[in-house]
Amino acid sequence: MFRRTLTALALVASPALAQETDLTIAIQLEPPHLDPTSAAAGAIDSVLYSNVFEGLTRFAADGSVEPALAEDWKISEDGTTYTFTLREGVSFHDGSDFTAEDVKFTLDRARAEDSVNAQKALFEGISEVNVVDPQTVEIVLSQPDGNFLFNLAWGDAVIVAEESIENIKSNPVGTGPFTFSEWVQGDRVELARNSDYWGEAPSLEAATIKFISDPTAAFAAMMAQDIDAFAGYPAPENLPQFEADPRFQVIVGSTEGETILAMNNAEEPFNDPEVREAVAHAIDRQAIIDGAMFGQGTPIGTHFAPHNPDYVNLTDLSPYDPEIARQLLADAGYEEGFSTTLKLPPPSYARRGGEIIAAQLREVGIETEITNLEWAQWLEEVFRGKDFGLTIVSHTEPFDIGIYARPDYYFSYDNPEFQELMATLTATTDPAERSSLVADAQRMISEDYVNAYLFQLAYPTVADARLRGLWENQPTQANPLAGVSWSE
Amino acid sequence: MMRRLAPGAALSAVFVIAALLSFLWTPYAVDGMAIANRLQPPSAAHLLGTDHFGRDILSMIMVGARTSIAVALVAVGIGMGLGVPLGLAAAARHGGLLDELIMRGNDLVFAFPSLVIAILITAIAGPSAVNAIIAIGIFNVPVFARLTRGAALALWSRDFILAAQVAGKGRARISLEHILPNVTNLLIVQGTIQFSLGILAEAALSYVGLGAQPPIPSWGRMLADAQTMVAMAPHVALMPGLAIVLTVLGLNLLGDGLRDALDPKLGEGRA
Q1: What is the DSSP letter of A98?
Q2: What pTM does this model have?
Q3: Which of the listed residues A3, A95, B116, B189 has the most CB atoms within 10 Å of its CB?
């Protein structure tokens, strides 16, 4: 009794010692709306993935695929029928039960003719979705797909309910460990702990995700401790300062972001493989990593993440050698060099990297006219309009080498051989065979010099030194907060 | 009265000379990057240090002065070239429809904050030094038009103008032969002030990424690039900032000094 009083007194007397139960974490980009199943914007997943919304499967922190709303599954002999057993006792935040009907609704909506899902290709192989009973759903594929469980883990494949779909863009209702409480546009999204969560309850009671796009403001907010953490800290040059400060911890993880100098393969002069090869040799990757990212990043020689076990290091195919580059340009008929455009989106890897690349290309006789674009303009002009010569961008989707099989994709690489290879890969389920096909794919685009492959984007997180459980790496764009807690 | 003119002229001259010199010589090439050499503090080899790409900041500021001066000069030229004739015409037709049209048109342009016009133009036509010049030039037009009209109106009631009218000269001819020479002093003073404002506007536009595009060095962009590095290498932000402050200060002092020297009214009183 006496002891209990003392404890109570201590709690009253020193509120500063009380366990902190809320978190303010900042990210750079604000989502355009809050429906991950109808937009390509990665910022939506940065806020909601595994916090508010969950899929049948999900990515774990190490990038592996683990069961989420599906407890278990069986795959038929021929690899075309997946039978999922759904977790029991799961409910949406609005109180409605999660059942097989919701899975059917979600997948049928995503693969429908008029679906606006940004990754419709993920669902292309599905031929039907059958509700067996409320806890069992059967998905029939038109052909075996070795990637199917992986595909279902994407943020674009999270389960939504028909009852709440109408207002999903402003009021997302999912099954995750946090419920959505408020979105103050231009500033923050607030989440609260879901007390009915099916899994282990999160240790945080509330989480605020703030949007700070300006690197200088990010630095100031972190230094003043207005925010507890910044995931994807935008100014690598400040990291040493945070590292030296005992109040903070700096976690540098990897991302799925292959940062590339994309070339317009459909237009002169980049329709000539020799010119593309020349560009690849003209570029000094290490100088770009040092100059633009202050040393953060791993050089890559193909469109594949180095931390993936199937990665093949092909940087030797395009070592930095201005002499070879000049020779190749001469062979291609550009002794005098040529001029082209270099359109740069806002992140510092692009803006600073662009200036360095422009200087390196000038060395071999390629003059570039740099245009700095905002994201909306970049999407309009470059990504959709294909009006560019060169551009720099980081492709942050996991396992996205498949974009090279899409001739209408912005860099317009049209190689039937590669498209066939990708089709074979999709239809292959044997892991060893898949690995060798993936290696072939990496080699093919690297030998074709489709784009100049620069480096794998690092993912720096600056956080309060007492925070535990933040995702170190970004196997997909996400900041799951269920496992985050304060130490001491 | 030389108290302002001399230091103003000297400061301005330093930057003009630096800009002109940069055509022939800079300590280092501004497009040469030496990443290993980045963020060096001022030293004998690099008088003002190096930036985040290892470029020499002194060389960048010299070439940047060229960008600033060129943009501001052409912008003031546009403002004068359009504004002065408009102002003369409005004064010549004082109270008439033309006067109303010109001055209300000016009010319209004047009503927009200058940077908003600049952002509008660059948003439509894309960011570049040329568009920055046009943007800054356009908001100079009403400044010169108003100034010219105001000064010209005062002159139109003077006796020597009456004499010219009696002699049979037309309004256009009087404007050119008698009004314009008498407002030139004012225009030179205002031109200097607008020139310094033009340099500020160019720096502001470049700072937000709407001015000269890389690799053309520009003071505003040097500042923008440096802002996340202030904590570890303050000189990278300090140097272009000082360049802007000193140039604008110099031009303002020069403008004030010129006004004192050229304004006949002030001159009579003080001499």
Answers
A1: P
A2: 0.79
A3: B189
